[in-house]
Specification:
It is built from three helices and twelve strands. The chain has helices spanning 2-24, 26-29, 194-197; strands at 41-52, 55-63, 69-76, 93-96, 101-105, 116-117, 124-134, 139-147, 151-154, 179-182, 186-189, 191-193.
Length: 200
């Protein structure tokens, strides 16, 4: 009789742990999405992902393959849980042609270029995370938090490069397009490869 009670307790405990495990989600154990082609692989994790105030996070990836494939960025809140964006609907997905580079971002910036802007992340993500999934391992990526407004400054051939400007006429010898918006701050985020996370 005592053995029977113990068995019941052990089974109940196991079910309890199973319930906890299935509700954790987050970067580590959210189900991998389908991008419409070959099975997606979890390749990189980024921490300190931000979309708040004047800050947005950019993810730039380059194809090392001779054929095209899709990659995606899934963004997670500081509390973990399910992704804030659903990449199965195309929200946060880009297609890389052979050797091409694409940028997926949490928002639009004045001084940089974005190919895909993720929607539904909100405006108060201050300590989030993200994972990069891809249909191919032949991909190299970087990520950075950037000031989305920036300042108009002289560039190119201007002899006063870096000086604030209001138009090309403010940039000495720079010519057309020499007055451009540049980010006031830009911080590279370290991407942790999935292989390293597993200790392989």
């Amino acid at each position: 009789m005592r053995f029977g009670k113990l068995t019941i307790v052990v089974i109940a405990s196991a079910l309890g742990f199973a319930g906890v495990s299935s509700s954790l989600a987050g970067v580590a154990d959210s189900p991998l999405p389908s991008l419409g082609g070959p099975p997606a692989q979890f390749l990189f994790t980024a921490t300190a992902v931000m979309k708040a105030g004047n800050l947005d996070t950019e993810f730039t990836c380059t194809s090392l393959s001779t054929s095209s494939f899709k990659f995606a960025v899934q963004v997670f809140a500081s509390t973990g849980g399910a992704p804030l964006n659903d990449v199965t609907t195309g929200n946060g997905v880009a297609t890389l042609a052979a050797g091409a580079t694409q940028t997926i971002s949490t928002g639009s910036t004045a001084g940089l270029h974005e190919d895909v802007v993720i929607s539904g992340v909100g405006t108060s993500l201050r300590n989030g995370s993200a994972r990069i999934v891809s249909e191919s391992k032949a991909i190299a990526c970087t990520a950075y938090v950037v000031d989305k407004f920036g300042t108009m400054r002289c560039g190119g051939a201007s002899t006063n490069a870096g000086a604030p400007c209001t138009g090309d006429g403010s940039c000495i010898g720079g010519g057309a397009g020499s007055c451009r918006t540049t980010p006031d701050s830009m911080l590279e985020l370290k991407l942790i490869s999935r292989t390293r996370q597993r200790g392989e």
